[in-house]
């Protein structure tokens, strides 16, 4: 039977109403309750998208029809749903969001509060998600009812947890450009501001589901210019931009240059290992030479995981890892329920700058020189398998290591690359290249592979 288009590798996402509508989301709420069998009320949050309020209401109705209490958090960030789901007595959490997807999309991120381990975990992609999809495809489940509609405001307790990461750390009175992208980050920044010694220069601050300045996705190079220009205009110490549900943050140095998330992973790993020697640090397989070197020097151990928040969280929880980072600017913390946060990273970076009395540009300069990288390049390839075979024929004989752990990775002595398909669109290929201290070599290899991929597009 054909798979429902909105069910992806580890979450739910699609066009509204073509792939996802209120009726379907209501049935997903019922299926979640039937498969997961949460041991308490389920927190429901939503982002600013114009379809999110109605879909959140339908989701709550589905949970209640299955006899599960729903807890309406209202407008919030994805990490606030994780925080709410982790509270004592809660059974889980679902965030209505399409994150950085195009304007007409929406979706669900689903987590469960595992009462046995007292950890928040994603819905299992191998077992629970297929069972949920099968139930949804059957149509509405029998509605026993009995679930209550509850409301909760977790902003204060969430704020306290985020600020708790700064305990024992000194901050300086930095001027910081903060670009919320008209997503959900603005109200949270306002709630944090009173406890921070920063001058915040707010940009695209008000939540607005029409996205008057475009969908917030700072991974796209074209979307970085406005933050960069503002940093230069107001002579800020650094800048931060978020995606729509603010579970990722992106940093800019005082010159307006974008700092690849890859290097922020190393900074945070080093800072956290200084306080917890011997900790385990999780990284994705796209770019990792810098992370592995930094972690080894700081006395930690690096653990490689497949890309994606559900997979990283599973490794984080299974090994009780101190921190996990993806080059795509997802940052996971043991002290944040092994989940990702877009608010904690920039605050830790600010504290690190103050402690070392330096700039962000100076802080990452050595690492950029030691391991220059391409940044992620994206392609639409009608026949990805043909491209993989071509690259294997061309590069495998010269590569000491070839692996398919997550996509195709080719590793030579002085450069390596990773090419993987998107988890949601198999024809979307993503390329990352890095080298050992040789930017020219990295550029040559990037350009050579880029030519192959463009020819196949």
Question: Which structural traits does this protein have?
Answer:
Alpha-D-Glucose-1,6-Bisphosphate, Chain A, domain 3, 36% helix, alpha/beta, 7-stranded mixed beta sheet, globular, 22 strands, 457 residues, 5-stranded mixed beta sheet, 4 domains
Describe the protein.
The protein is an alpha/beta fold. The strands form 4 sheets. Strands 1, 2, 3, 4, 5, 6 and 7 form a 7-stranded mixed beta sheet that branches. A 5-stranded mixed beta sheet has the order 9-8-10-11-12, with helices on both faces. A 5-stranded mixed beta sheet has the order 14-13-15-16-17, with helices on both faces. The protein contains 14 helices and 22 strands. The protein is globular. The model has no long low-confidence stretch (mean pLDDT 95). The chain has helices at 22-36, 52-65, 78-85, 128-138, 155-164, 185-193, 225-233, 261-275, 289-297, 309-319, 344-356, 360-370, 384-395, 439-456; strands spanning 12-15, 42-46, 70-75, 92-96, 105-114, 119-122, 149-151, 175-179, 199-203, 238-242, 249-252, 258-259, 280-283, 301-304, 323-325, 331-333, 339-340, 377-380, 401-403, 408-411, 415-421, 428-435.
């Amino acid at each position: 039977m054909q798979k429902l288009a909105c069910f992806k590798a580890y979450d739910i996402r699609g066009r509204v109403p073509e792939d996802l509508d209120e009726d379907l989301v209501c049935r997903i709420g019922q299926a979640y309750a039937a498969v997961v069998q949460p041991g308490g009320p389920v927190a429901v949050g939503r982002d600013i998208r114009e379809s999110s309020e109605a879909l959140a209401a339908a989701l709550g109705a589905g949970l209640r029809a299955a006899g599960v209490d729903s807890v309406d958090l209202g407008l919030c960030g994805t990490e606030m749903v994780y925080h709410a789901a982790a509270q004592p007595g809660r059974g889980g959490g679902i965030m209505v969001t399409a994150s950085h997807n195009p304007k007409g999309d929406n979706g669900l991120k689903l987590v469960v509060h595992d009462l046995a381990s007292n950890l928040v975990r994603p819905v299992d992609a191998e077992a629970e998600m297929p069972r949920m999809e099968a139930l949804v495809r059957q149509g509405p489940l029998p509605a026993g009812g009995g679930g209550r509609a509850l409301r909760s405001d977790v902003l204060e307790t969430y704020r306290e947890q985020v600020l708790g990461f700064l305990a024992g750390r000194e901050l300086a009175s930095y001027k910081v450009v903060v670009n919320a992208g008209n997503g959900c980050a603005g109200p949270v920044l306002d709630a944090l501001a009173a406890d921070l010694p920063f001058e915040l220069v707010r940009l695209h601050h008000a939540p607005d589901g029409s996205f008057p300045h475009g969908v917030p996705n700072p991974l796209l190079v074209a979307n970085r210019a406005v933050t960069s220009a503002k940093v230069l205009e107001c002579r800020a110490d650094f800048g931060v931009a978020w995606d729509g549900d603010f579970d990722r943050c992106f940093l800019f140095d005082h010159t307006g240059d974008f700092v690849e998330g890859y290097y922020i992973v190393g900074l945070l790993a080093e800072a956290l290992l200084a306080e917890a020697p011997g900790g385990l640090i999780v990284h994705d397989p796209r770019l990792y030479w810098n992370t592995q070197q930094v972690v080894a020097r700081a006395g930690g151990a690096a653990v490689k995981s497949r890309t994606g928040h559900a997979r990283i969280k599973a490794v984080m929880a299974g090994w009780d890892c101190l921190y996990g980072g993806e080059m795509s600017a997802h940052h996971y913390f043991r002290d944040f329920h092994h989940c990702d946060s877009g608010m904690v990273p920039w605050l830790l970076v600010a504290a690190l700058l103050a402690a070392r009395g330096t700039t962000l540009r100076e802080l990452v300069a050595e690492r950029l020189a030691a391991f220059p990288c391409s940044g992620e390049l994206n392609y639409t390839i009608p026949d990805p398998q043909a491209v993989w075979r071509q690259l294997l024929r061309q590069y495998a004989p010269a590569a000491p290591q070839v692996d398919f752990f997550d996509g195709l990775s080719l590793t030579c002595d002085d450069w390596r690359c990773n090419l993987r398909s998107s988890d949601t669109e198999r024809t979307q290929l993503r390329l990352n290249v890095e080298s050992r201290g040789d930017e020219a070599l990295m550029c040559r290899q990037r350009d050579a592979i880029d030519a192959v991929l463009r020819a196949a597009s």
